[in-house]
Design goal:
15% strand, alpha/beta, 405 residues, 15 helices, 2 domains, Rossmann fold, globular, seven-stranded parallel beta sheet, six-stranded parallel beta sheet
């Protein structure tokens, strides 16, 4: 069904600041640009932390303020309960005033998933929570009882809001089931749409050329991790294994920043010649770092997810595959459908002993190159395909009768 005019869609991201080098920002902007072919699209972050706003997309701030760029983009990190309540009041005003002009409000998952969508629904507007993770509160709080309490309260609020949503979009089948189990959202109201890949940026690149452009030596076997250094990923086992490895001429390159960088640098201090921290790099440079690698890493911590399975739609693995690099990750959730052990990557538990065994029998570079060809052949959705699915779901939800509950 085609609406009588172009839809006006706002993709709201209340739990994040706009930081262009971070995954949540990138997937929102990529989807918004692709969705703009079908509708008039605006994105809304709590604040724009980048000095320069992204081109080609309208961006508004939920709570404009001078914001310094932090190691991560978590917009509510470090704020007290009083500040958080003040932000919720601001969100209510934002929903009443700024969002009233839109036909559809997509709400990116955060601590209070569905909160904005509930306000939209109360005035007859379509609000659609877009979920990418159901966190394990006990793991995420890391024994901090105040953080655990905030996450549990947030989950309680989210469950009430989510259960009443006409439509919820999940990024994987595993996550669809997690949302149903954790928040009791009926399965028939949860649609699955995988994240896309920017094939214009992430495509096979010659390794020698990539290393030359980055000033890296041609000879070493390079293992590369690209992403945030947070608690959903755990680089400690591979750092320990690379530090102790008997294999000569092996390097570990870590591209990104985050709360755990200091810890990782301390762990790597005993072997600085093998482990290199690049920090944040411009997004356009990320494919070069991937292409320079022989093997790319996605060391997820399954315990971070409510079900113990990797529920969300990883961005880094499809990007690694698209550049034509074999991947090491864990046998969990959607990863099993992306990586075939021994063909386009390796799957094993993210534990030090497992990494040590792997490093002791590290495959030759020629075998890794062949596996990279298999990686590049994996079929993956584009952002255009993802956007079309979002648009169809929004049009269908607007046209359909109100859900009976």
């Amino acid at each position: 069904m085609t609406p009588p005019r172009r839809l006006r869609i706002c993709y709201a991201v209340p739990g994040s600041d706009l930081v262009s080098t971070m995954g949540p920002t990138r997937n929102v902007l990529n989807l918004a640009r692709a969705l703009a072919r079908h509708a008039d699209v605006t994105v809304a972050f709590r604040r724009v932390a980048d000095r320069q706003r992204p081109e080609g997309i309208k961006v508004i701030e939920i709570e404009p303020a001078a914001a310094s760029v932090r190691p991560d983009d978590n917009a509510t990190a470090g704020i007290g309960y009083g500040q958080f309540l003040a932000y919720l009041r601001r969100l209510r005003r934002f929903a009443a005033n700024d969002l009233a002009a839109f036909d559809v409000v997509l709400e990116k998952s955060w601590l209070l998933s569905g909160f904005l969508s509930a306000y939209c629904r109360a005035r007859g507007q379509l609000g659609v929570p877009v979920e990418n993770i159901v966190q394990n509160a006990a793991y995420a709080s890391r024994q901090q009882w105040t953080k655990w309490l905030r996450m549990r309260l947030g989950s309680w609020v989210a469950s009430r809001c989510m259960r009443e949503a006409r439509l919820v979009i999940a990024e994987t089948e595993f996550l669809r089931q997690e949302i149903h189990d954790h928040w009791r959202v009926p399965l028939e109201r949860i649609a699955v749409v995988h994240l896309g890949v920017d094939r214009g940026l992430f495509h096979p690149i010659d390794q020698a050329e990539a290393r030359h452009n980055l000033g890296l030596a041609q000879e070493p076997t390079i293992l590369t991790y690209v992403g945030v250094l947070d608690w959903t990923h755990n680089l400690a086992p591979v750092i320990a294994a690379v530090t102790a490895a008997s294999t000569a001429n092996v390097e570990l390159h870590i591209v990104g920043d985050g709360a755990r960088r200091g810890e990782y640098e301390a762990r790597a201090a005993a072997c600085p010649e093998r482990i290199r921290f690049h920090g944040r790099v411009p997004h356009t440079q990320v494919p070069l770092h991937i292409a320079a690698a022989d093997l790319c890493l996605a060391p997820y911590e399954s315990a971070a997810f409510a079900s113990g399975e990797l529920g969300y739609s990883t961005m880094k693995i499809p990007e690694y595959l698209s550049v034509g690099r074999a991947v090491v990750s864990v046998p969990s959730g959607r990863i099993r459908s992306l990586i075939t052990d021994g063909q386009n990557g390796f799957l094993f538990a993210n534990e030090t002993t497992q990494w040590q065994r792997f490093m002791d029998a590290l495959p030759a570079r020629e075998r890794l190159r062949t596996m990279g060809l298999a990686a590049a052949a994996v079929e993956l959705p584009s952002w255009e395909t993802t956007a079309e699915a979002y648009y169809r779901l929004c049009v269908g939800a607007l046209a359909g009768p109100p859900p009976a509950w």
